[in-house]
């Protein structure tokens, strides 16, 4: 076959699939209830051939009132979807108008009948668990015994009863299909319940009994009957060709496109036998055992969750159902207000906070979509954690760092600057703690420094010297500039999964003692912990992706750079 012919065949197959999918459209159409009522009328009897007026009368008798014109429109649409076909029966009418109306008669198509039957069965099905037809396993073994007995007893003088044999074969395959469908539906229900995180209370107790009792019973029946059925299939294998030949003598449909009953081909028998023996992979009994183990394991996981002290502890299912009932009873305006109150979806409002706004163009009427983005800390953005990470810098004691001594002149001035000493009775009632003594010394030391600085400035002014602004110093004499500079020449190099960063000391602080550094990673998803560094170097290990580093200078008094130096290595 040529490529063009293959394309035509593929296009025809796709068109056929699309046409069959149209058979389901009436179920979800805008007038789905009316379409379903019409299809129910057509499928309620055999060989129904109805006109629009007859359909209208039949619907009225069932409680659905539709005019003849509306019924005609609905039937024409169902015909386009393939659910109905035109009838050809001649109608006996009294007037020309009745003839025009009855000229268009409709019948339900074969696929339309099947789709409607399955749809109505699905709509009528309950939400609970479906019982498994486990008793059919034993019945299947007995039916296979009868088939083997019939074929073994057959001879030329006494041929096999083909009608009875055909009935036994159909029973075997119908039993297998019903059992398989009920097992799938049961475990589908089990799976929907197991995936619920809010399973608790009486509902959990009922489901636990269902799993522990019913699944155990089902597993035991499968373990008892499945090997027996498999042995019966093995015994029937040498006789299978004779079974198929005997059933082939029965009258059947001559149409090549007709759907045959199951069990009339060797392929059907191999598929059923493979379910028990696992010829094409995992067998059906093994699949059922694994499903039971998985269900029981999930039940234990839910039990541990409910018993764990770190779990949620309380199911919110009742609250959510209550909220759903409020939505169901609310009108549109109340529903909008309830939704906003329940989920916090209020209208966007950008309130102008004052002159410290980073961009004065962001006013009260500016949408959040167009406003300047707000900086969100990485810990809050990545982990939802507002807590500070890393070590907290200690606050240095400037008095202790200055090295005050009781024998110095400053100490003498300190004693002179102290207030009057309390009497002995007051001193006994309130003994001085070390923290209180440090506070007193710090205040006195500050007074002495101010007096000394004032004296120097005053002496310089008397001599006519220009005024010199005092310079603050760190604890070890390092001058503290107005802004601590950032490190210089920050750069990184990669060696496999290890990245090494180096930087330089700012020119203002070169040669000073006590200068250290702090660094932290800033790429998305990295741990933002701040690390101290004595040397201008940082090594990041096990970092196969991009690494970004932020480095600051730290003075002995704890002051750090106002702006960090940053660099990234891909």
Walk me through what this model shows.
This protein is of the alpha+beta class and 570 residues long. The protein folds into four domains: 10-124, Arc Repressor Mutant, subunit A, CATH 1.10.10; 143-307, no CATH class; 397-417 and 437-474, no CATH class; 488-569, Immunoglobulins (Immunoglobulin-like). Helices cover 52% and strands 9% of the residues. It has 20 helices and ten strands. Strands 7-6-9-10 form a four-stranded antiparallel β-sheet, with no helix packed on it. Strands 1-3-2 form a three-stranded antiparallel β-sheet. Strand 4 and strand 5 form a beta hairpin. Helix 3 (32-43) packs across helix 7 (110-124), helix 8 packs parallel to helix 10 and helix 10 runs antiparallel to helix 13. The longest helix is centred in the middle third of the chain and has 36 residues, at 201-236. The radius of gyration is 45 Å and the shape is elongated. Mean pLDDT is 76; it is low at 309-313, 403-422, 424-453 and 455-472.
């Amino acid at each position: 076959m040529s490529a063009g012919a293959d394309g035509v065949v593929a296009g025809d197959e796709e068109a056929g699939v699309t046409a069959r999918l149209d058979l389901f459209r009436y179920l979800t159409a805008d007038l789905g209830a009316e379409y379903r009522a019409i299809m129910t009328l057509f499928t309620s009897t055999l060989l129904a051939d109805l006109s629009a007026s007859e359909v209208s009368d039949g619907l009225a008798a069932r409680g659905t009132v539709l005019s003849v014109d509306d019924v005609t429109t609905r039937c024409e649409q169902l015909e386009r979807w393939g659910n109905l076909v035109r009838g050809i029966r001649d109608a006996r009418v009294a007037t020309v108008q009745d003839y025009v109306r009855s000229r268009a008669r409709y019948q339900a198509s074969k696929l339309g009948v099947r789709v409607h039957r399955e749809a109505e069965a699905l709509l009528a099905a309950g939400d609970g668990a479906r019982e498994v037809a486990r008793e059919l396993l034993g019945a299947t073994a007995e039916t296979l015994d009868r088939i083997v007995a019939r074929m073994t007893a057959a001879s030329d003088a006494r041929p096999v009863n083909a009608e009875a044999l055909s009935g036994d074969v159909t029973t075997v395959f119908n039993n297998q299909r019903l059992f398989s469908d009920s097992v799938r539906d049961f475990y589908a229900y089990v799976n929907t319940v197991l995936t619920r995180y809010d399973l608790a209370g009486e509902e959990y107790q009922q489901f636990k009994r269902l799993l522990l009792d019913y699944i155990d019973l089902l597993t035991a029946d499968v373990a008892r009957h499945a090997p027996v059925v498999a042995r019966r299939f093995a015994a029937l294998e040498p006789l299978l060709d004779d079974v198929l030949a005997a059933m082939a003598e029965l009258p059947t449909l001559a149409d090549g496109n007709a759907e045959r009953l199951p069990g009339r081909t060797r392929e059907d028998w191999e598929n059923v036998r493979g379910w028990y023996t696992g010829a094409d992979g995992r067998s059906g009994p093994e699949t059922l055992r694994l499903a039971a183990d998985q269900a029981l394991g999930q039940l234990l996981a839910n039990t541990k969750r409910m018993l764990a002290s770190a779990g949620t502890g309380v199911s919110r299912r009742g609250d959510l159902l209550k909220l759903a009932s409020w939505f169901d009873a609310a009108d549109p305006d109340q529903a909008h207000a309830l939704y906003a109150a329940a989920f916090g979806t209020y209208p966007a409002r950008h309130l102008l906070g004052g002159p410290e706004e980073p961009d004065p163009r962001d006013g009260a009427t500016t949408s959040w979509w167009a406003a300047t983005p707000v900086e969100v800390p990485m810990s809050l953005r990545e982990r939802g954690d507002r807590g500070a990470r890393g070590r907290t810098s200690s606050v240095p004691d400037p008095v202790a760092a200055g090295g005050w001594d009781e024998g110095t002149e400053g100490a003498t001035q300190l004693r002179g600057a102290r207030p009057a000493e309390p009497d002995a009775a007051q001193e006994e009632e309130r003994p001085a703690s070390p923290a209180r003594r440090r506070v007193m010394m710090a205040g006195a030391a500050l007074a002495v420094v101010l007096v000394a600085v004032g004296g120097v400035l005053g002496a310089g002014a008397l001599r006519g010297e220009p005024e010199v602004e005092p310079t603050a110093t760190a604890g070890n004499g390092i001058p503290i500039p107005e802004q601590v500079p950032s490190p210089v020449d920050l750069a990184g190099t990669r060696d496999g999964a290890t990245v090494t960063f180096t930087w330089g000391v700012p020119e203002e602080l070169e040669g000073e003692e006590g200068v250290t550094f702090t660094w932290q990673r800033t790429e998305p998803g990295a741990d933002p912990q701040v690390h101290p560094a004595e040397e201008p170097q940082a090594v990041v290990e096990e970092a196969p992706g991009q690494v970004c580093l932020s480095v600051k200078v730290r003075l002995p008094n704890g002051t750090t750079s106002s702006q960090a130096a940053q660099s990234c290595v891909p």
